């Protein structure tokens, strides 16, 4: 099948679109990436989404407008992806949508909400759409996250055997998450903020979206006292499986935790401190697993200040791009959702209970029909390996 995957992270800057040809070959999923592109959100829709994120109070009218706006822009992105990346032909679209709220209470995920009405995608493309990819895992007692664990475990099992020890995949989005393969049952969890607090600090001080190139963080100095306050966040001490998001690390988080500290008025030093926080919490989370190498992806991997801090903190384990395992780093999330859609279409569970905390592995998402009736294949046996062409 040719599957188009759609993704948008917590920065809400663009829709990631990736197309891939996927084939089941015995116990192996063969994934041939066909291309990837970014489609920026319209300025008005991005402002509406950012304005609705926690701790904002919203009306049902706002929710309906955002759900429709996201659905229409995801639909346009999918149609463009089919034309530009897949030669005008695809079989399935898998859309993660945009997370507006991830409800975690008492260490358990109680619910999760991703908006982006899939009917608009089905109508625009004529293709069936797999969406709402997290909710079933939450219903089975899991966190619905990190969904990347299904890709990471299939991709990195043989690599862990080859290096003779555990290997970790690290994704640096708004939130950082890790998957560890080769240390018994695989584990995966959110370690804490990656870009979320960095971006919030820049936006509050300058109005810019981010510290482009990590230039400000690189010339700043880590404030040890501020770092200690930030590191005292109770989330970091929780045992996995666990998940978090902007419900905790919201734009007001820094002012609550660092109230009265002058680092709030020294932007470069604040960003250097936050880069060190990201690196330190990732390294602390991985330390018990004694990983042999860490394969990184996500927007934070383009921030030299964060990468330098990670390399220092993770040593002697090397930090390498996920492309070393054959997977395009910038397209990982969208390709992940293409893989999940493909597995769901073939009746294969797309979650890993030891990673999400669910009681059982579950089929992910719901399917919206395209222009014709649904004709699903016979369920396939679960694969054990992912090979990237």
Automatic annotation (TrEMBL):
**Which residues of the sequence carry a binding annotation for ATP?**
9-16
The catalytic activity, as recorded, is: 1,6-anhydro-N-acetyl-beta-muramate + ATP + H2O = N-acetyl-D-muramate 6-phosphate + ADP + H(+)
Q: What is its EC number?
A: 2.7.1.170
Instruction: Tell me which UniProt keywords the record has, alphabetically.
Output: ATP-binding, Carbohydrate metabolism, Kinase, Nucleotide-binding, Transferase
Name the InterPro entries on file. Anhydro_N_Ac-Mur_kinase, ATPase_NBD
Record keyword Nucleotide-binding present = yes
One Gene Ontology molecular-function label? kinase activity
What Pfam families does the record tag this protein with?
AnmK
What pathway does the annotation place this protein in?
Answer: Cell wall biogenesis; peptidoglycan recycling; Amino-sugar metabolism; 1,6-anhydro-N-acetylmuramate degradation
So what family is this one in? Answer: Belongs to the anhydro-N-acetylmuramic acid kinase family.
Main function: Catalyzes the specific phosphorylation of 1,6-anhydro-N-acetylmuramic acid (anhMurNAc) with the simultaneous cleavage of the 1,6-anhydro ring, generating MurNAc-6-P. Is required for the utilization of anhMurNAc either imported from the medium or derived from its own cell wall murein, and thus plays a role in cell wall recycling.
What name has this protein been given in UniProt?
Anhydro-N-acetylmuramic acid kinase
Q: Which organism is it from?
A: Pseudonocardia nematodicida
Gene name as annotated: anmK
């Amino acid at each position: 099948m040719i599957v188009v995957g759609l993704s948008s992270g917590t920065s809400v800057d663009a829709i990631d679109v990736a197309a891939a040809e996927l084939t089941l070959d015995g116990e192996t999923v063969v994934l041939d990436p066909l291309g990837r592109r970014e489609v920026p959100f319209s300025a008005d829709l991005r402002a509406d989404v950012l304005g609705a994120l926690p701790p904002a109070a919203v009306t049902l009218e706002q929710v309906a407008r955002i759900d429709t706006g996201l659905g229409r822009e995801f639909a346009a992105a999918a149609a463009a992806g089919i034309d530009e990346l897949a030669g005008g032909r695809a079989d399935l679209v898998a859309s993660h949508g945009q997370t507006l709220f991830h409800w975690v209470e008492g260490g358990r995920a109680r619910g999760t909400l991703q908006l982006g009405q899939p009917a608009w995608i089905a109508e625009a493309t004529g293709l069936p759409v797999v969406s709402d990819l997290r909710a079933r895992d939450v219903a089975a007692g899991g966190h619905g996250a990190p969904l990347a664990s299904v890709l990471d475990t299939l991709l990195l099992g043989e690599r862990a055997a080859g290096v003779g020890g555990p290997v970790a995949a690290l994704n640096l989005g708004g939130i950082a998450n890790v998957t560890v393969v080769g240390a018994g049952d695989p584990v995966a969890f959110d370690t804490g903020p990656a870009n979320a607090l960095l971006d919030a600090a820049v936006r509050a001080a300058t109005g810019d979206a981010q510290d482009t190139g990590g230039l400000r963080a690189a010339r700043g100095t880590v404030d040890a006292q501020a770092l200690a306050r930030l590191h005292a966040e109770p989330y970091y001490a929780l045992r996995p499986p666990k998940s978090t998001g902007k419900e905790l690390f919201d734009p007001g988080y820094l002012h609550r935790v660092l109230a009265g500290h002058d680092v709030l008025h020294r932007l470069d030093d604040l960003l250097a401190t936050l880069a060190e926080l990201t690196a330190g919490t990732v390294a602390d989370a991985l330390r018990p697993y004694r990983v042999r190498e860490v394969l990184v992806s996500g927007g934070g991997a383009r921030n030299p200040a964060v990468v330098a801090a990670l390399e220092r903190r993770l040593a002697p384990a090397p930090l390498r791009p996920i492309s070393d395992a054959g997977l395009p780093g910038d397209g990982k999330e969208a390709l992940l959702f293409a893989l999940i859609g493909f597995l769901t279409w073939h009746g294969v569970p797309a979650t890993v209970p030891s990673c999400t905390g669910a009681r059982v592995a579950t089929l992910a998402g719901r399917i919206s029909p395209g222009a014709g009736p649904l004709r699903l294949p016979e369920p396939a046996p679960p694969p054990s390996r992912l090979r990237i062409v």
